[in-house]
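can u do me a favor
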């Protein structure tokens, strides 16, 4: 108990960017070393599935990641690492970023986002988890048993260099990786990554208003597919509706930040309003079609009765604080 109390007191750490006090049992160096080993393991696992760097999908992700890194280089955790992109061929709607700057994106995610702004916001969110050290914090905080395992395993890891005791070292490394990188984040950490990720995207001149639209699209997608189970990446995250609401609240502040970063003006039309109106028109059209012919319109699957009313109200979203006249943005 004394050891545990000492540990708690001596390992309090201030979260970068948000200044929140949290518990970290790992040094940043060990954490980065473990991330590098985890990245190696992923590279082996995905060896046959990685797109070549010449593939246009890889190039799009590369451009977005490097742009995010360049525009946020004032943050030491961003400029201290070199950001490397890996695009994995696979239908999973998933993306993740390791704290040493290794970015993994599935093609399933690229097929799901509708534009580069959404992709920037998703990658900003994942980069935020990495630079805030959320995986180490999650492992340290979630359960006292995890905390003790981490301390014990870290001690074994420190005492048994992997070269001399390869088997034990490898086992310990795998256990640490599981504790750190294979588990869902808490709601609190998700909300923090949403907030910081949106700031990163705003500084990279993305249209931050596209963030809530992505989650609305995901909600409709789930409704239309009727799949009770969510994609892997999403199942570890808050519900789409909560996410949309939370992001919407952050938009005015993100727009102010974006404006202070000398970004090109945003289109006057808010993508959230465009999306709500499009859904409304499609549903009305579908209803009329069904009433007349009892058949769905071409290109739109039958809409389940339970489609949330909040998605249909064009004025249900808060107005953005800035409206600009030009039609061009660069990301
Ligand atoms: Zn997340």
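np, heres the sequence
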């Amino acid at each position: 108990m004394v050891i545990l109390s000492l540990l708690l007191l001596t390992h309090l750490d201030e979260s970068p960017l948000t200044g929140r006090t949290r518990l970290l049992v790992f040094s940043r160096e060990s954490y980065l070393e473990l991330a590098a080993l985890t990245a190696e393991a992923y590279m082996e696992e995905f060896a046959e599935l990685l797109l070549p760097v010449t593939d246009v999908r890889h190039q799009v992700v590369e451009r977005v990641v490097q742009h995010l890194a360049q525009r946020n280089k004032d943050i030491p955790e961003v400029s201290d690492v070199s950001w490397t992109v890996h695009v994995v061929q696979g239908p999973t709607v998933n993306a993740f970023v390791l704290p040493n700057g290794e970015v993994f994106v599935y093609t399933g995610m690229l097929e799901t986002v509708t534009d580069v702004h959404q992709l920037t916001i998703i990658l900003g969110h994942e980069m935020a988890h990495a630079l805030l050290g959320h995986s180490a914090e999650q492992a340290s905080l979630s359960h006292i048993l995890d905390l003790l395992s981490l301390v014990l395993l870290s001690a074994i890891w420190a005492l048994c260099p992997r070269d001399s005791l390869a088997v034990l070292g490898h086992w310990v490394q795998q256990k640490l990786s599981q504790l750190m990188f294979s588990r869902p984040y808490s709601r609190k950490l998700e909300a923090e990554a949403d907030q910081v990720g949106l700031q990163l995207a705003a500084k990279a001149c993305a249209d931050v208003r596209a963030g809530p639209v992505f989650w609305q699209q995901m909600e409709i997608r789930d409704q239309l597919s009727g799949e009770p189970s969510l994609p892997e990446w999403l199942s570890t995250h808050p519900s789409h509706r909560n996410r949309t609401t939370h992001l919407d609240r952050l938009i005015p502040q993100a727009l102010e930040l974006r404006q202070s970063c000398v970004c090109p003006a945003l289109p006057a039309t808010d993508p959230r309003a465009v999306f709500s109106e499009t859904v409304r028109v499609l549903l009305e059209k579908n209803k009329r079609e069904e009433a007349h012919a009892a058949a769905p319109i071409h290109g739109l699957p039958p809409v389940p009765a339970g489609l949330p009313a909040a998605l249909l109200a064009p004025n249900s979203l808060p107005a953005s604080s800035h409206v600009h006249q030009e039609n061009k943005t660069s990301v």
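Residues 1-278 form one domain. hope that helps!!
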